[in-house]
Write a sequence for this structure.
């Protein structure tokens, strides 16, 4: 017979292992949210619906068009990249992106979220909850005392790989450097000859791509409906915990949210899972108002 | 080289420039003087395309540039050294310099220019790996000039290079401005320190309330009674 402490030890290991898997998805979503916030000065409230649309595009290609996984996934990523970039190019660029008109950007992204939801609801895709085919089997892998499916391990590995590629791109390429420059000081970026609109357009595309990737990775674990974009709330939670403008913060925030959710589910109650992320946000903000990785609060001089 | 013809600009309903004309011939150092708020920085920002003009035209080597985007202007060979420490604070000094060459693709030329600008400002090499935000005010000013040079400009727009610096540093920076000019760079410098600017330039313009109030060879302006009274402290 197992003692209490043995059960707790098992729960702890299982909670962390499962938490890292879902947390890596939240981390991807948080990166997608943060890169837009840093360069556009407004949160993208359509992030959830872009995520949802990505999952449905992949589902359409896989199930209805019977296209192989290796083709369907890159095509989905390309479609969301182009779609998000065009949304910036056609809608946001016309509004004009500057802090003074941030509210217009927010309204535009809210509009986009309703449009995408409406499309999925009214084309028959969203009529019934659907399930997304998994590539990897449900065989289990034991890590310590924790048990994960091969699917879980693959999701975690792919999410980490995507983040690693993103960080190399963002930190060590000319385009990545231009993106960081626009986030840090758009005026100086314009003066060294960086095309602000083109850079922001690419950021939106990249953000859409990361959201769609997160959607494809997590879709087999959740039920697909037109409202599945609600998952992205946890990406926002991860971003807030990390400081909202820090990319390392976004990753750590995502993993923390994932782990806390799972630990709360095991130790407290599965009903408490939904409130766990918000308790984490409140705790972090109470102790460090700027988030875990946010810099000191700076008030811009005009 | 640069020819500004009757340009006007405004911020909302507030007029900032009205019918300003200015010429910067190739190889010259031209000074643009005036009090705070006279429109000096606005003039530079019209050339750099951060501010739109409402009338007139701006020509660079005979070509109109007042409808181009800011990055196209840099590509043509006009770089601005802005005032107000517009650095990339959380990038290293090295990255700040490399990003100055963003519009260029010639790897070897960029590497050579990195050496060249560090020759003008040896202190930057010592700070290569440091975040630019940790530099002192004087070092940041040097970084800004070096960053602009990394674009290989033919026309350099300098905004208040002496602002907030010690007299010794100001002297150093103006010596380098002279040297750059002797090496063939055309320079348009905006200054509040009229004495300094008139000493280094060959021709000068004085802005008052968004209009050119005086212009002439710098040596003559330095002798003009009204200019002396208003800008050189009598």
């Amino acid at each position: 017979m197992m003692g209490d402490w043995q059960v707790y030890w098992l729960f702890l290991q299982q909670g962390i292992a499962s938490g890292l898997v879902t947390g890596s998805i939240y981390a991807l979503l948080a990166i997608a949210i943060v890169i837009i916030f840093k360069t556009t000065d407004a949160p993208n409230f359509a992030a959830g619906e872009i995520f949802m649309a990505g999952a449905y595009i992949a589902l359409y290609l896989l199930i209805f068009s019977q296209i192989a996984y290796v083709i369907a996934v890159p095509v989905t990523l390309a479609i969301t990249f182009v779609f998000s970039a065009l949304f910036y190019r056609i809608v946001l660029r016309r509004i004009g992106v500057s802090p003074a008109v941030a509210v217009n950007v927010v309204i535009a992204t809210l509009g986009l979220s309703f449009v995408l939801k409406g499309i999925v609801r009214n084309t028959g895709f969203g009529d019934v909850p659907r399930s997304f085919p998994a590539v990897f089997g449900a065989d289990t892998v034991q890590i310590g005392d924790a048990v994960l499916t091969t699917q879980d391990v693959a999701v975690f590995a792919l999410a980490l790989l995507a983040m690693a590629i993103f960080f190399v791109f963002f930190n060590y390429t000319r385009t990545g450097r231009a993106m960081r420059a626009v986030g840090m000081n758009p005026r100086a970026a314009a003066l060294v000859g960086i095309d602000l609109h083109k850079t922001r357009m690419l950021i939106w595309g990249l953000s859409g791509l990361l959201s769609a990737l997160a959607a494809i990775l997590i879709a087999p674990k959740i039920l697909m409906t037109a409202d599945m974009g609600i998952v992205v709330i946890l990406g926002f939670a991860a971003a807030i915990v990390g400081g909202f403008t820090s990319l390392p913060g976004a990753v750590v925030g995502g993993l923390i949210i994932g782990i806390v959710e799972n630990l709360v589910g095991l130790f407290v109650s599965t009903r408490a899972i939904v409130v766990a992320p918000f308790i984490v946000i409140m705790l972090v903000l109470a102790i460090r108002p700027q988030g875990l990785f946010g810099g000191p609060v700076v008030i811009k001089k005009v | 080289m640069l020819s500004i013809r009757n340009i006007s600009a405004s911020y909302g309903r507030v007029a900032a420039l009205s019918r300003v004309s200015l010429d910067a011939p190739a190889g010259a150092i031209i000074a643009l003087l005036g009090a705070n708020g006279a429109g000096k920085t606005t003039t530079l920002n019209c050339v750099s395309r951060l501010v739109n003009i409402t009338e007139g035209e701006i020509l660079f080597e005979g070509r109109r540039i007042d409808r181009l985007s800011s990055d196209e202007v840099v590509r043509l060979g006009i770089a601005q050294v802005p005032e107000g420490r517009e650095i990339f604070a959380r990038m290293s000094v090295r990255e700040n310099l490399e990003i100055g060459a963003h519009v260029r693709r010639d790897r070897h030329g960029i590497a050579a220019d990195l050496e060249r600008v560090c020759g003008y400002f040896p202190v930057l090499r010592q700070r290569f790996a440091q975040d630019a935000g940790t530099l002192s005010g004087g070092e940041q000013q040097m970084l800004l000039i070096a960053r602009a040079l990394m674009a290989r400009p033919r026309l350099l727009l300098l905004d208040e290079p002496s602002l907030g610096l010690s007299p010794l540093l100001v002297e150093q920076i103006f010596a380098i401005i002279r040297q750059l000019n002797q090496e063939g760079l055309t320079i348009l410098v905006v200054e509040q320190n009229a004495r300094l600017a008139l000493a280094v330039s060959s021709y000068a313009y004085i802005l008052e309330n968004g209009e050119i109030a005086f212009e002439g060879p710098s040596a003559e302006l330095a002798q003009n009674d009204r200019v002396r009274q208003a800008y050189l402290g009598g």
User: Anything to note?
Assistant: Residues 89-152 of chain B form one domain. The interface with chain A takes residues 48, 50, 69-71, 73-75, 79-80, 82, 86-91, 95, 98-100, 102-103, 147-148, 151 of chain B (CB under 8 Å). The longest strand of chain B covers residues 14-24.
